């Protein structure tokens, strides 16, 4: 399908595989030697290098300036292209914005996902908030919805942002730690700034270690406004709901992946798109009419609060599909620049103080990062016509003809556009008051929604949350920090604080004066299941050694591919592995995609162990193979085993008490996510795939 933004970028794209005029300088001079600097020599001895070699000099100078400042936050990211289409008329009552109401449009988008704390080279799977920034290239100009995968934020006031970011980033004296909030300063900030209470619950939950960017919710976080054709105003919160449901890693996987495959999320996004599994989200809105602003016991403009969906329903509007990877990281994912202030007619801001500050910050930061002409860069320019009298500045490259560069001018060139013809309409809001540095009364309450979130977690999620906080506080070596943190947690929930105190040491907290209200909402990630159960794009490892059962592996590979998932054969070595009946060294056997040391179980969603007596004997004597199985089992991955593979699984995963099937019918031990069968039959295969699907659910 055509995508206007891709067409636009193509006008600036060269493909070195298609065009190879030979090497030239940037000025077009053909270069005959790009490896050896011009020198003085007498034929035998080689003397000094000559500064006069302008080709060498320019190559080095150009290289010296390759880096630009990385983003002060959200430095590490991954991007993809796609499109957005409205699928109903839910939004028409509230907004005149074509991008949200016109179902005949396909609006091109670019999305950049990111972590927040770490620098550009940090690992993907660290515990952190994930950025979820969407640039809609609409017919009325760019709309940037710069969100996160968590619906609330740490602070209420933009002016606190530098303090917060300084506190969470590596400490100033030693630049430690990288990609972590597990340090004194972050928790000190939490201790002293109670408005962080709600967000800290989310960041310590499994939401902060997603399995994939494709399996996260997204949230606009701030309160925006919508305006309809009749001029009525509504407050709005934006939500992205992933087609695949919300899934997380377990902490042990996240820790290991940070070392084993620091690009895990980046690769996952590209791998899925390239294998025909585009990533999809539903865009949904929560809407409050202008007159109802003060109806709730929380302030609807406070970014540390959610709008519980039991009170304000989440209404689906359209679907975003990401189906194209970037061609070049720097010019696309690095140079893309978002601005919350970029809205289109029908969408507006509210007095949310955090949003007001963001509207200032983003434009400003892009000037430092990319220069004043950052909006001219191919990835940032709109797909609709644009023209104005902004001029000049470093690296201006658009050439504008005409003899005037101001308005009004005697030629009446470029007059402002009337509102009726699509010009930006300001909502005529009556504002009066006293100039004061104040926060609204409801902004003073910080605990009710922190409790709401905690109460809404399942037991498993609560246990993970307690472990996460205990992990982080264990990395704080200042007793003031971790003992105060327990007191602060006690304001949210006494049991939670007590469990953490037991783990991390220090005095146990007394009963809190603030009682947990016990209410819940739909916030557990288990509530956000895939639209349709699927294993599409999931990575399934098949462990093999020489002498494996070839027919079973082939059948399994075919079944996995047919379900849209990705089979990977993992062997003792990368290269030919021979099935039973074939002589090693003769013929090709099966080519293992990876070896046990090169890839670890953490990188896969499920594991299959075929039969074959020699193959099982050799896996059983391989410590790494045993570790693979045990680790996959420990991380609750679905595991299938057939024939002799069943005993190997039983022994490796230490399951002596569990009865495995040794007949041909197959037994499902669903509590463990384990499926076994004497041989691969259509019924055991379909049971197995059901378990994998269940786990992906
Ligand atoms: Fe940002 N934020 N932010 N932020 N933010 C930036 O802009 C800022 C906030 C978010 O992939 C910066 O281009 C202030 C909330 C994302 O390029 C900077 C405040 C949310 C991204 C900035 C906030 C976000 C940024 C750094 C408090 C969730 C990455 C580089 C008032 C809704 C976008 C840049 C990308 C990036 C400022 C709070 C999300 C400095 C002042 C709340 C996803 O301008």
From TrEMBL:
GO molecular function term, any single one: catalase activity
Function: Occurs in almost all aerobically respiring organisms and serves to protect cells from the toxic effects of hydrogen peroxide. Catalyzes the degradation of hydrogen peroxide (H(2)O(2)) generated by peroxisomal oxidases to water and oxygen, thereby protecting cells from the toxic effects of hydrogen peroxide.
Cofactors that this protein relies on: heme
Keyword Phosphoprotein applies: no
Keywords: Heme, Hydrogen peroxide, Iron, Metal-binding, Oxidoreductase, Peroxidase
Entry GO terms, CC: cytosol
Keyword Transport: no
EC class (word): oxidoreductase
Family: Belongs to the catalase family.
Pfam families: Catalase, Catalase-rel, Catalase_C
EC number per UniProt: 1.11.1.6
Domain of life: Eukaryota
Gene3D superfamilies assigned to the protein according to its UniProt record, in alphabetical order: 1.20.1370.20, 3.40.50.880, Catalase core domain
Active site location: 74, 148
UniProt domain Catalase core: residue ranges: 24-415
Organism expressing this protein natively: Phellinidium pouzarii
This protein's name: Catalase
Binding annotation for heme: 362
């Amino acid at each position: 399908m055509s995508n206007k933004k891709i067409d636009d970028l193509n006008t600036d794209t060269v493909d070195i595989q298609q065009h190879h005029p030979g090497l030239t300088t940037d000025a077009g001079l053909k270069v005959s030697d790009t490896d050896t600097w011009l020198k003085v020599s007498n034929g035998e001895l080689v003397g000094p290098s000559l500064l006069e070699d302008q080709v060498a000099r320019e190559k080095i100078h150009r290289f010296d300036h390759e880096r630009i400042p990385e983003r002060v936050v959200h430095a590490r990211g991954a991007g993809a292209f796609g499109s957005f289409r409205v699928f109903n008329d839910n939004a028409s009552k509230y907004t005149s914005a074509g991008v949200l109401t016109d179902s005949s449009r396909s609006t091109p988008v670019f999305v950049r996902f990111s972590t927040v704390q770490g620098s550009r080279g940090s690992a993907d799977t660290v515990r952190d908030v994930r950025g979820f920034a969407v640039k809609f290239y609409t017919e009325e100009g760019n709309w940037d919805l710069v969100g996160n995968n968590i619906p609330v934020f740490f602070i209420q006031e933009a002016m606190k942002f530098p303090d917060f970011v300084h506190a969470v980033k590596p400490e100033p004296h030693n630049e430690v730690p990288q990609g972590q909030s597990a340090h004194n300063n972050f928790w000190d900030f939490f201790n002293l700034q109670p408005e962080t209470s709600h967000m800290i619950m989310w960041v310590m939950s499994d939401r902060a270690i997603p399995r994939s960017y494709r399996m996260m919710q997204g949230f606009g976080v701030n309160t925006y406004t919508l305006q309809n054709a009749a001029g009525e105003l509504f407050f709005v919160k934006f939500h992205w709901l992933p087609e695949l449901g919300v899934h997380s890693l377990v902490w042990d996987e996240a820790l290991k992946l940070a070392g084993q495959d620091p690009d895990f999320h980046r690769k996952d996004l590209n791998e899925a798109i390239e294998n025909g599994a585009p990533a999809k989200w539903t865009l949904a809105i929560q809407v409050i009419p202008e007159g109802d602003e003060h109806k709730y016991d929380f302030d609807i403009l406070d970014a540390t609060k959610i709008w519980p969906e039991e009170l304000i329903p989440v209404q689906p509007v359209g679907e975003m599909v990401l189906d194209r990877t970037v061609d070049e990281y720097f010019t696309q994912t690095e140079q893309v620049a978002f601005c919350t202030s970029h809205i289109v007619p029908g969408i507006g801001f509210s007095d949310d103080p955090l949003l007001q500050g963001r509207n200032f910050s983003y434009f400003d930061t892009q000037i430092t990062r990319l220069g004043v002409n950052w909006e001219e860069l191919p990835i940032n320019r709109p797909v609709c016509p644009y023209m104005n009298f902004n001029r000049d500045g470093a690296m201006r490259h658009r050439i504008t003809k005409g003899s005037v560069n101001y308005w009004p001018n005697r030629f009446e060139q470029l007059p402002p556009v009337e509102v009726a013809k699509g010009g930006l309409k300001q909502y005529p809001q009556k504002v009066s008051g006293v100039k004061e540095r104040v926060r609204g009364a409801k902004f003073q309450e910080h605990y009710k929604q922190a409790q709401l979130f905690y109460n809404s977690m399942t037991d498993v999620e609560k246990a993970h949350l307690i472990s996460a906080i205990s992990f982080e506080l264990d990395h704080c070596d200042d007793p003031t920090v971790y003992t105060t943190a327990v007191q602060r947690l006690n304001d949210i929930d006494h049991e939670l604080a007590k469990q953490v105190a037991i783990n991390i040491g220090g005095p146990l907290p007394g009963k809190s004066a603030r009682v947990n209200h016990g209410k819940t909402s739909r916030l557990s990630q288990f509530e956000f299941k895939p639209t349709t159960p699927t294993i599409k794009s999931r990575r399934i490892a098949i462990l093999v050694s020489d002498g494996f059962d070839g027919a079973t592996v082939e059948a399994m590979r075919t079944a996995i591919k047919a379900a849209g998932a990705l089979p990977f054969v993992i062997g003792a070595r990368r290269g030919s592995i021979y099935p039973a009946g074939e002589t090693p060294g003769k013929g090709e056997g099966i080519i293992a995609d990876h070896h046990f040391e090169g890839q670890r179980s953490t990188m896969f969603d499920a594991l299959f162990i075929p039969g074959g007596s020699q193959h099982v004997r050799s896996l059983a004597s391989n410590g790494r193979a045993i570790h693979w199985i045990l680790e996959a089992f420990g991380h609750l991955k679905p595991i299938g085993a057939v024939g002799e593979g069943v005993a190997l699984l039983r022994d490796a995963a230490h399951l002596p008490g569990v009865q495995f099937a040794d007949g041909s019918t197959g037994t499902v031990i669903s509590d463990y996510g384990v499926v076994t069968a004497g041989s691969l039959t259509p019924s055991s295969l379909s049971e197995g795939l059901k378990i994998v699907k269940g786990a992906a659910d």
